[in-house]
Design brief:
alpha+beta, Aminopeptidase, nine-stranded mixed sheet, 35% helix, 26% strand, Lipid II:glycine glycyltransferase (Peptidoglycan interpeptide bridge formation enzyme), aminoacyltransferase activity, cell shape, FEMABX, cell wall biogenesis/degradation
Length: 375
């Protein structure tokens, strides 16, 4: 049977949005509104059509110029939304590269949503306790998908290579390891029983202390940001400006009123914790969290997560995604506490195959690698 020939060309935001809706889910960074969150990147919605003219794939491309060079990195974070397991994968990717090259791209970076391995909460707990295990990948997975290796082989055969990760800017790659809580068809009470004893105790403690969790709106973003800046100072990362979150709110909620939500947890009139939640189809993400050290004993962080999980169930979601985790399980790792917190909700650590680059211009791509290695 002859392989299908695919054509890649710009599509409208409506076509893009409708395609994602028909698929049931996609990354929140692969909906057209995400382009409005990144004003420093030029955004373009692309569609894949087959020989019969049917739209069979879509992707949001973000173009970012390399410093001092009039060429761009074409970046599709956690995308595009195509059949990554197709045996003729190169026929999906070749027209993408050709299109981006025509737009002045020196390299194309994609983020296949292809899961390779997963470790359930019990396996992660055992890995942390085992002094002979330093990274999650060294521990026996609870399950793995052999098709992931096939996708990697096809990418390498088509001259794609694993992307170099870095810090912010060009290195703002998406996490390879994430924590996910499957919730499809589960009642909140069943999910609560799956929490660790400490999580259940903290949820109850927050309830008994009178912690109130409510949904906020755009007017509450400054309060969220105040806590977020305090969190950044405490945890040692550079915070995003308030304008970033206001832009995110405006762009995402204009596309879908429920695309982004803001939650606030208060006690005795003081907001102690806040978090943002993003939804695309059946996938819900805990996006950004913020908290103060004030009255931590009333457990506002557990309370806000529990409310978000319950609301995700009400939305009919299949997955509640806690986003990135560390792949190191050593006590010396400063991020281990976050892994312990997320794993307390039950669920599993999932590893995907990471981001991949196609160097259109090898000289400029090497310059990008050098730039990232210094950041």
């Amino acid at each position: 049977m002859a392989s299908t020939t695919y054509t890649v060309a710009p599509i409208s935001a409506r076509q893009h949005r409708d395609f994602v809706a028909e698929r049931g889910t996609a990354s929140h960074m692969q909906v057209p509104s995400w382009g409005g969150v990144k004003p420093d990147w030029r955004a373009e919605s692309l569609g894949w059509t087959d020989g019969d003219g049917r739209l069979v794939g879509a992707g949001l491309v973000l173009y970012r110029p390399l410093p001092k060079v009039r060429r761009s990195l074409a970046y599709l974070p956690e995308g595009p939304v195509i059949d990554w397991h197709a045996p003729d994968l190169e026929r999906w990717l070749e027209p993408l590269v050709a299109h981006c090259k025509g737009q002045g791209a020196f390299a194309v970076r994609v983020g296949p949503r292809v899961e390779a391995r997963a470790w359930d909460a019990a396996a992660v707990k055992d890995a942390i306790a085992d002094p002979g295990v330093t990274r999650l990948g060294d521990a026996e997975p609870s399950r793995q998908d052999p098709r992931a290796g096939e996708v990697e082989e096809r990418l390498r055969a088509a001259r794609w290579r694993p992307a170099r990760s870095g810090a912010d800017g060009f290195g703002a790659g998406q996490p390879r390891f994430v924590w996910q809580l499957p919730i499809e068809g589960r009642a909140p009470e069943d999910i609560l029983r799956g929490f660790s004893q400490q999580w259940r105790r903290n949820v109850k403690k927050a309830e008994n202390a009178g912690v109130k969790v409510v949904r906020g709106d755009a007017s509450d973003l400054p309060e969220f940001h105040r806590l977020y800046v305090e969190t950044a100072e405490r945890d040692g990362f550079v915070p995003r400006p308030l304008g970033y979150f206001q832009r995110m709110w405006d762009a995402l909620t204009a596309e879908d009123p429920d695309r982004m939500r803001l939650y606030l947890a208060s006690h005795d009139g003081d907001v102690l914790s806040a978090a943002t939640m993003l939804t695309v189809g059946g996938h819900v993400w805990y996006s950004y969290g913020a908290s103060t050290v004030l009255r931590r004993e009333v457990q506002p962080n557990n309370a806000i997560q529990w409310q978000m999980v319950q609301d995700a169930c009400e939305l009919g979601a299949s997955v509640y995604d806690f986003r990135g985790i560390t792949d190191t399980v050593e006590e010396s790792d400063p991020h281990l506490g976050l892994l312990r917190f997320k794993s307390g909700a039950g669920g599993e650590a999932c590893e995907n195959i990471g981001e991949w680059d196609f160097p259109v211009n090898r000289v400029l791509h090497r310059a990008l690698d050098a730039y990232l290695s210094r950041r």
